[in-house]
Recover the amino acids of this structure.
């Protein structure tokens, strides 16, 4: 009971901090936070599908698709900045729905590698589609969202993150979570228990991809341009993956913590190591998989259980079954 | 029934190939050459997938590392690249064993997800390490014998690229011999079919995995050396080959090494066909995706995996 109160107090304080952040911090920290929020949205969106045991390497693909869709929506449909962000998300979700009908017949490595190819596919299509999608030069928005005013654009990205966190918590707290976990643990058992595996996976895939598209759309509206090379860059797959892993997968707060920590480190890393700083994320991914597969959150939970049980004899039981307190 | 299907399928493919050859001879020639390169890279991946049951997402990147190694041996020591690839392959063998020992062997019992993410991380580290050491500036080695060409009727074409076909055939035959005739190879095959059973009859499973991984890495190392003689080199050059190799192995069916060559033939000719139309060359990069989707659909409707 007290745990719940403490948790909601912490959440409310964090939310207020996030809201008043642009008033207390200068433009540089604000722009860092905007980037961190975009990565946070991607990391968390990626985790939602991962809870079903399906690994998608298609983050950059759906991110870029949403970015392009929102820029095109502004230039061709005369949508405003905010509705263009939603449009980007919806467009990515629709593409995911169509693709998912085909590729969700695949499992494990087949699925993972097919999604790895997605960013490449989208990039090739856009690079060759000169008339509509701008070809290799990309597209430029006539003006960025809110004409570049820092506070509203900060709030826009924050809004996107809150939507993703809300979606993740909705999945986490509802019956849907049990379906996803059941599929992850044993698909055949899940099926025999009445879980419609294909529909569940399709829902999760569409949700994940739509949220990624929304993050991409927000980013493109903030910076006002998209190009095939930058927008479908592998960074947008690599960084969210490293962030979610470092924080801890299969839950809302792991990716959030991971992206905060790594996102802020990343900004400084860029200053010290302008070339090849991505190697650090690769190393983090390898080390986390080898030594800390459940990330920070898993680590914290282990310590927590150890303290509670006194001796810490059985730290493993808490890992997957309990809802995080 | 199945045999008849293969024979008719093969016959139809052959007729199509001959018709295509009469229409656009260069498409078939370049397609076969591409197929050689693709299958030379994909066969080692098929070996690892079939025996260790691990997707190595750093597969193409290892080829890239070997190509860089060969490049530096050739430029710094003045060796011929085809000679320099021998030490490079030996280094890659050791490197493969090191990677297996330090990382992959620890995730064998973990969910498949972990292995995928792990090798993805390794791929990133390799690309970025090369990026830091050698910068992303493209490098090309000019070797005079690669420009050899032949003339057939009206058509001129380069013949050096057939070396990839020879390389692929050599790798395939060598591996078949190793797996069928040598004691270690047979042990590896047994481990691939049933690791627990193999362990029961006294085969050292862990050592076999390590050896197979090392051999596969050394083989991509050799391919990397040949790759350098013809193509220009940059850190990200390996990535597409990882995906294409996997697509080919999946098309052929895991454990079926000779079929990889036929899958590669389909991919190579299809890519060359699309590249042969002016202005559509860029689309050739996604042919493999269309192919893999098609194969998956056909398989899933037939009720298989």
């Amino acid at each position: 009971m007290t745990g719940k109160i403490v948790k909601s107090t912490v959440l409310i304080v964090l939310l207020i901090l996030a809201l008043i952040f642009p008033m207390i911090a200068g433009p540089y920290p604000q722009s860092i936070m905007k980037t961190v929020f975009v990565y946070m949205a991607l990391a968390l969106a990626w985790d939602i599908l991962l809870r079903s045991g399906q690994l998608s390497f298609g983050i950059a693909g759906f991110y870029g698709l949403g970015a392009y869709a929102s820029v095109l929506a502004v230039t061709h449909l005369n949508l405003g900045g905010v509705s263009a962000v939603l449009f980007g998300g919806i467009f990515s979700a629709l593409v995911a729905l169509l693709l998912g009908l085909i590729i969700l017949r695949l499992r494990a490595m087949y699925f993972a590698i097919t999604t790895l190819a997605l960013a490449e596919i989208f990039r090739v299509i856009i690079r060759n589609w000169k008339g509509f999608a701008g070809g290799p030069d990309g597209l430029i928005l006539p003006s960025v969202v809110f004409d570049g005013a820092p506070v509203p654009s900060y709030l826009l990205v924050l809004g996107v993150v809150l939507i993703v966190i809300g979606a993740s918590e909705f999945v986490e707290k509802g019956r849907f979570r049990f379906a996803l976990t059941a599929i992850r643990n044993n698909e055949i058992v899940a099926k025999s228990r009445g879980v419609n595996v294909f529909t569940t996976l399709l829902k999760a895939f569409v949700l994940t991809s739509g949220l990624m598209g929304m993050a991409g759309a927000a980013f493109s509206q903030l910076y006002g341009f998209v190009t095939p090379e930058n927008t479908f860059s592998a960074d947008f797959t690599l960084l969210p993956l490293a962030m979610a892993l470092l924080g801890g997968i299969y839950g809302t707060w792991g990716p959030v913590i991971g992206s905060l920590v790594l996102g802020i480190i990343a900004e400084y890393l860029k200053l010290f190591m302008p070339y090849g700083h991505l190697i650090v994320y690769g190393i983090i991914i390898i080390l986390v998989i080898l030594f800390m597969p459940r990330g920070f959150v898993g680590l914290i939970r282990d310590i927590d259980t150890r303290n509670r049980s006194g001796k810490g004899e059985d730290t493993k039981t808490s890992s997957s079954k309990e809802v995080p307190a | 029934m199945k045999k008849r299907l293969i024979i008719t399928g093969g016959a139809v493919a052959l007729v199509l190939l001959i018709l295509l050859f009469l229409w656009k001879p260069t498409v078939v020639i370049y397609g076969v050459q591409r197929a050689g390169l693709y299958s030379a890279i994909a066969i080692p991946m098929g070996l690892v997938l079939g025996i260790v049951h691990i997707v190595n997402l750093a597969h193409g990147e290892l080829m890239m590392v070997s190509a860089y190694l060969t490049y530096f041996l050739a430029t710094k020591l003045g060796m011929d690249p085809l000679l320099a690839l021998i030490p490079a392959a030996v280094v890659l063998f050791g490197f493969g064993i090191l990677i297996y020992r330090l990382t992959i062997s620890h995730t064998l019992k973990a969910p498949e997800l972990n292995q995928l993410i792990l090798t993805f991380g390794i791929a990133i580290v390799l690309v970025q390490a090369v990026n830091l050491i050698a910068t992303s500036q493209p490098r090309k080695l000019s070797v005079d014998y690669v420009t050899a060409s032949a003339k057939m009727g009206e058509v001129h074409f380069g013949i050096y690229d057939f070396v990839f076909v020879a390389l692929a055939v050599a790798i395939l035959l060598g591996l078949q011999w190793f797996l069928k005739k040598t004691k270690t190879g047979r042990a590896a095959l047994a481990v691939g079919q049933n690791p627990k059973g193999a362990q029961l009859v006294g085969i050292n499973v862990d050592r076999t995995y390590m050896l197979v991984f090392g051999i596969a890495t050394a083989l991509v190392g050799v391919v990397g050396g040949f790759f350098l003689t013809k193509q220009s080199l940059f850190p990200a050059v390996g990535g597409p080959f990882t995906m294409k190799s996997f697509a080919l192995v999946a098309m052929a069916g895991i454990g079926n090494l000779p079929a990889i060559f036929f899958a590669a033939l389909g991919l190579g000719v299809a890519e060359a066909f699309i590249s042969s139309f002016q202005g559509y060359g860029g689309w050739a990069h996604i042919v493999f995706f269309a192919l893999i989707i098609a194969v998956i659909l056909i398989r899933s409707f037939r009720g298989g995996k």
In short: The first helix of chain B runs from residue 2 to 23. The mean pLDDT of chain B is 85. The CA atoms of residues 70 and 87 of chain B lie 8 Å apart.
